Amino acid sequence: NELILAPLSNADIKYKPEDFRLVQMITINPMAMFARRDLPASNGDELLAYARKGAADGKPLTYASVGPGSMYHLLGEHMSRQTGIPMTHVPYKGAAPAFQDLMAGLVDVFISPYGKGQIALVDEGKLKAVAVLSADRQEPLKKAPPLHDAAPLKTFVFDT
Fold first, then answer.
1. Which of 29, 34, 94, 121 has the CB geometry, 3.0–4.6 Å to 113, for a possible disulfide?
2. What is the DSSP string of 110-159?
3. What integer pLDDT is reported at residue 19 of this predicted model?
4. Alpha-carbon distance 38 to 76, whole Å?
C-alpha cells in the first residue's frame, strides 16, 4: 500500500513503485467491512440502502480509516464514487482508535484487514461484520457475504 500510495500523496518521496520488484508473495490478507453493532444492515445491499437514505436525510454514512490517503480511506472514497452515495471520511491515527470509536457507535463502518481479535469482537456482539471484500465468503466471518454481491459493487473486490 505505502509503496504505491506514499509517492502519490507526498511529493518529497523520490522513489517510484517501479524502482522495486516483487521477490516473494508472503501473504494475502482478506478485509471486511465492520460496522457498529446497531447498524441496521447485514449485507452490502442493506448497507447501501441505509447509506443512501442517510445521505438523502443529510446524515451521510461515516467511514473510519487509519488516516488520510491510506488505502482504507481510498477504498471508502472509491465505494462512495462507485455507488454515487456521499459518505463522510473520519480519519484516525491507526486501527485501534478507529475500532474503539466503531464499538462506541461514533462512526458507522470501518474497512480493515482482520484477525482473531476482530473475529472475537464480532462473535461477542461488540461489532458487526457486514461484508467481506474478498471474492468469496471467508470461513472466520461466514455470516458476512462478499460486498460485491451488492449490484452497484460488482467489481469491489480487494485484499491486501
1. 29
2. EEEE--HHHHHHHHTTSEEEEEESSSS--GGGTTS-BGGGSGGGTT---B
3. 84
4. 20
Q: Put the strands of the sheet holding 31-36 in their side by side order.
A: 87-91, 61-65, 109-113, 31-36, 127-132
Measured over all CA atoms, what is the biggest interatomic distance in the chain, rounded to whole angstroms? Answer: 50
**Count of C-beta atoms within a 10 Å radius of residue 152:** 16
Q: Where are the alpha helices (DSSP H) in 10-146?
A: 44-56, 71-83, 95-103, 116-123
Rounded distance between C-alpha atoms, residue 153 and residue 59, angstroms: 22
Query: What residue type is assigned to position 51 of the chain?
Result: A
User: Which amino acid, one-letter code, is at 113?
Assistant: P
Give the integer Cα–Cα distance in Å for 160 and 154.
Answer: 18
Q: Report the run of H or E that residue 4 belongs to, with start and end.
A: helix 2-9
pLDDT digits (tens, 9 = 90+) for 7-56: 777 888 888 778 888 888 888 889 999 999 999 999 999 999 999 999 99
| R_g of the chain computed on alpha carbons | 16
